Fold these 4 entries.
Entry 1:
Amino acid sequence: MLTSLNVRCAIFLAGVFAFAPPLAFAQGALTTTRNASDERLTVGRGGDYWTADRIKEAQPLPWYDQDKDLGAGAALQLGVAPVGPPDSAPGGNPGANQAPPRASGAGSANPLANEEAADDDAIPDDQDTAIDFGSQDIGDGYPANKTIFYQKQYPWRTTGKLFFTAASGGSSYCTASVVSGNNIVVTAAHCCYDRGVGSFHSNWSFAPAIRNNNRPYGTFPYQQARVLTSWITSGGRQNDVCVLQMGPNAAGQSLSSRTGWLGRSWNFPTVQHHFDFGYPGNLDAGNFSETCAAETYANCGDPNVLAMGCNMTFGSSGGPWLRVYKPHEIGNKNFVNAVVSGYDGCTGTFGQSFNGPRFTSDNIVILCNAQGC
């Protein structure tokens, strides 16, 4: 576990070696490196750490409390929407051990894209982003993989629980989803780095499609976790995004080859119809994935933070918000466009609405380009 002093030392050393080639770290070493745009943690711990008993003991991680972190009224400090055209990367089929790296923001060149690429995804919604069509506390919620048929179906199988040892102590979990053929998952930054403690969590392992503690694809220990430098230095919901590179499971299988992966989209208008997936502890004790469907709106008037009506609470952190939701269809659809971050007083009613960072060139693109999505 890193102390605040460790973090400052690691950041200083990273600055000294900014122009050195990437370093290889022995298993069990805990080291941070930093450049101008992102922060990376490299550790490695075997997947055997997360035994069935530890998984049962893991508690849902509370949401990120921006007001507590940044001070009262922080949620009302409006951001400026980043400049950049809407863009996306398509999802993919399981089977390939690894997909070629693709730089986010370079266009959606992928052989899996189909005729729908020229459909509703290629053209931004013709809506005024200054108008909020979504409504607080209005959304449909229903079970996802509680029905066993859906456990190993797409896109449900790409979402799972991300287990870790919290920086403040104890076993916790968030929700995460696979977003790259390079075995990369996305979640919330507060599921990777605790700003209150000033330290990274540790021992992450991802269990895709987990259902009542049954793990049909096994558990995948992480190799690297990456958050924005701005999350560590400044916090803020718009920066509450983390990507993790996952290693093979106990059978030596890669994550993406078992589950496939969801698409990603960024710089799309605030008003979108989203389907969210998560493992909230307030519903069925977090044993199954749940779904919410609603139209989003700018959280507290901030164009960089989305909000939607949903009845999920803790444990849903990091859960994907999907645009162009198409069950059982892989390719240019099912785009992760945000992740669950938390709740502010102006979001709506606690337990009936939540919010998350809108994916933009300033968060998911930076992280994915750095990690090699």
Note: The CA atoms of residues 63 and 121 lie 30 Å apart.
Entry 2:
Amino acid sequence: MKAFAQFVMRGPAQAALVIAAFGLLSLILPLFGLISSAAVGLVTLRDGARRGAVAVAVATLASAAIAAVAFGAPLVAIVLLLMLWLPILGLGALLRQSRSLALTVQAAGLLGVLVVLLLRSLVDDPAAAWLALLRPIEAMLVQDQVATPEVVGAMIGEVARWMTGAFAAGLVLQWLASLFIGRWWQAMLYNPGGFGDELRSLRLSRWVGLAGLMLLVIIGFRHGPGLGADLLVVLSVLWLLQGLAVLHALHHDRRLAVGWLIGLYVLMVLFMPHAELLVACVGFVDIWVDIRTRMSTRPTAPRG
């Protein structure tokens, strides 16, 4: 991975090649989008927004040319630019200038809020729009006899009601995961261990907690998905990251075996989304009671 990061940093051409190639590959396997955006983040964090913008511009032109030849759809490059590259360019520039991971994470959350508001302003009935997009999945589940048509229809209908918030939260999580990868690469090349220290000290503003409490009250009175629920889903991504920061800090302070963290992430995959909800609750509580400071006064356990 270090060699890959070094290749990205050789120059604008190499960076643009990685950004464009992995961006186009993300149309086949979305996880490649993380690598593409992380390359944008690495260049921006290390060399500044101007160098990052040059790499993104070259990658956009290259992607448009390749997409025009391969798919007859050059506008694919615009989708990649808006969904993957521009948000990371902005967040990377903010992190470089502010040197505050917490501020950058909160800015990403604000972008997610703007996505929710934009979708709800452009579409009169977002749930109906998502339901139309989910119809092929519903038909496939019915055809495979996963459940009765009535049960499948009810399930898809409920999913559609939550999709606006889930879509925005997914974007925020993807942007921040890409930015974190880029920051990790930067630390690997120029400041070994720096990203770990930065992640473990991540601490959100109490305003993020207050906003969550207000949304919980609104949802309690509304009884169901809506704008408040969509915004709360976006905020939960920020709490999830703070929860992970708490768990990483406790792992580091107690000098636990690396298998402890591996097990944590395995459980998060196997028990999605319940495990993520628990970790997000840890992050939400930490906003108010500072778990890391309280736990650091206890004796550390021997390394396993």
Note: Residues 1-99 form one domain.
Entry 3:
Amino acid sequence: MRCQPNGARDYFDRIPEEWDALYTTQGRFSRLADRFFRKALFQRRHLTLAHCGEIGGARVLDIGCGTGQYCLELARHGAAEVIGIDFAPSMVEYSRCRAQEAELDGICQFVRADFLSHEFSGTFNIVIAVGLFDYVDAPALVLRKIAGITAGRFLASFPRYSPLWSLQRKVRYRWIKHCPIHDYTRDQLEKLYTGAGFASWEIIPMKRGFFVVAQNNSS
């Protein structure tokens, strides 16, 4: 079973440079405009780094790593091992090149695979899934697997359902880009995390979504 459908994989396989540009203010005016209008992206990044806990020496997993932005950042903050997994081949190749350029390829490893079918070795001190659950068709299965490999903190973002915003996202992604898209309510998240088996969690509201900090007992 795939955690994301082929439509999402095909969409992200086409846009590694465009996606990576969202994280920087360098270059064209359009990138600056995107930074202004997509503040949620930078809010997620701030919350992720603020809630990781002790990064030094940690073993980290980034699910849906995209172009490796978070992987490289956590490696720079002292993580001992960072694994990024993504189902889009061009995203994984782009991440590997970025890691080599930053001389962090000894710490960062990137895997092209579907998360649900991939077998991981051991557990992770920090697991992140930022911008992943927008595109996941089976969130309960994904969360249960994550809980089983997390020996510390799991950080994730979820888009919040609202009638108008959710409709425009459906038009923009599902109908125009042929990429499935999902939204969540707070009640849905409570049920998902209750069923996943985490020791505890906190749901933090954001402008357009939720950021969830979950915890399992560290080994």
Note: The chain has one domain: 6-215.
Entry 4:
Amino acid sequence: MLNYLIMYFLSKYFFNNSRNPKGLLGMSVLEFMNGFSHKELAEWALAFMEIKDGDSILDIGCGGGGNISRLLKKYPSSVVKGVDHSPISVALSKRHNAKEIKNNRCQILEGSVYSLPYDSGSFNIVTAFETVYYWPDIEKSISEVLRILKQGGSFFIINGADAEGGWVWDQYIEKMHTYTSLELETHLISSGFEEVEIIRNKDYHFLCVIAHKYNKSNNYNNN
């Protein structure tokens, strides 16, 4: 029983560090996400994400920079930027993508999703891998994503837990909320996105929610 409790609290402490990685443990969490825990999810999502080579891309909550590396490799004509509120995440992302930063294909900044350090209409694509769980004011954050997207741009939310029969981490990680696809769709529409697509892998409970920002002149009809 004592060993179980020790393991429980150690694992809880480890995974709580994923929300805002700090120190040596935070670095270990980030390397774990880069090399193992997020890889299968990212490859699943990238297989069907409609991104054109040459699109300007921002990865919010870029963590250790693993998904930035994947995007840079898959879209060699694109500039891929990243932003994260954790200083050690920014440092590790820069280290993993140093070559492309030097080649002006990548930039990584420290910043908050509530006030993204980019001009309005800066990006064709915004991605958020395993991070919206931790956004306390989800609609304010989504409104910021909408602001920095170009007309016709898309926002991809990729979660490894969909709250619809899968493992829910809320009991282990403080201030985390595992969303259903309906919750995310409701927040996205309320924040100003015009169409939302839902893609799920029910076996693994992977979830990809795609929100589109159409041209104001677009007469797109959802029906």
Note: The CA atoms of residues 37 and 160 lie 9 Å apart.
